[in-house]
Amino acid sequence: MQPITFSEFTLPNGLHCIVHENHTVPIVAIDLWYHVGSKNERPDRTGLAHLFEHMMFQGSRHVGKTEHFAYIQRAGGTLNASTNEDRTNYFETLPSNQLELALWLESDRMMSLDISAENFENQRQVVKEERQMRYDNAPYGTVYEHLHQRAYFQHPYRWTTIGSMAHLDAVTLEEAQEFFKTYYVPNNATLVLSGDLTVEEAEKAVMLYFGDIPSGKEITRPTDFDLPLTTEVRDTIYDHVELAGLFMAYRICDVKNPDADVLGIIDHILAGGRSSRLYQNLVHSKQIAQSVSALAAPREHPGLFFINAIAAQGVSLSEIEHEIDTELQRLIAGQLSEEELQKAKNSYETRLLKSFSTAMGIADNLAYFHTFFGNAAEINRELERATKVSLEDVQRVAKQYFAGKGRVILHWLPKTKVITS
């Protein structure tokens, strides 16, 4: 793969801008990252970062409510936003001759978002309804909430980005306004422009639209401290589901730790497609599970490794758990061939390359590496790190994170149907 080239500059107000030129097609991707996520929230006010993902489309000084969507769509573009534990981003892809439209829209809401009582109350209700629909009333919808609550003791990763219903009810307009004033400022943002533009065009336009926005105060970051997870935490959850599920979580490293790349390979070895170990064993051969997945999720601070399985009808979760533990023990014992490792690396590398195949994919990766690694050039080292993962690395990392007693295991069971006369 050819190295991804880019240029960088920082405005006097602290806004960091990264520009990747690619004139293959006349489109440009705009990806604005704010270094704020659910871990920046107070323990009694969870859900604010995600609430602002919605609030940011409620209008600003020169843009009416929901008009952000209309402007971009009329220009032939697409847009969206997302929130996780560590960051919130807002992104658009549109014809390159509409670059200034997107910059105007983003700068206007950074400078003058309309956080009125009416907008705040409307979006509070929207988020509460989203929580009920996607989490509380969805099959297995609160799995990750339960896993995080048990895998962390003091760290803010113990709550999820959607927030609790009680906290959404309790947060005040003034608290929301202060949250925005603190975190949605130029010196806490990274703006990436990727596609059919020049660095000179970018510098001129970014200065024009963002240069007059004042910096915010210096931000205090949460520490990564938490008590170690040294024992096995088990629980049983009864829910409105048809099939039982097994959900496991292990504490792992942060994204900057070299082990993160190895863990990404391990999740492909375990459950990366139909030829993976767990799929072949649990779903194909023994047919004791309907589905199985594994995911390494390192974060800015130490994250989690998840292994999930939905049981076939009538199968004991203990049987599935035993089979998963057996596969983990095989990795710990070094029972992995060079051929199987290479297959997993190929799958992992394909996923990486796919993320570099679009203007927005490149923009998102540049923002990611600048925000969490402090160096956007890491984008050109990620593939190399993956290709260097060895059999010894896999065994060492498996021992490091899976051999101890510390993990969370949830047995998710169907509620007993009560028949009344």
From TrEMBL:
Residues 171-347 form the Peptidase M16 C-terminal domain. GO terms for molecular function: metal ion binding. Residues 20-159 form the Peptidase M16 N-terminal domain. It comes from the Bacteria. Belongs to the peptidase M16 family. This is Insulinase family protein. The lineage of its organism: Bacteria, Pseudomonadati, Chlorobiota, Chlorobiia, Chlorobiales.
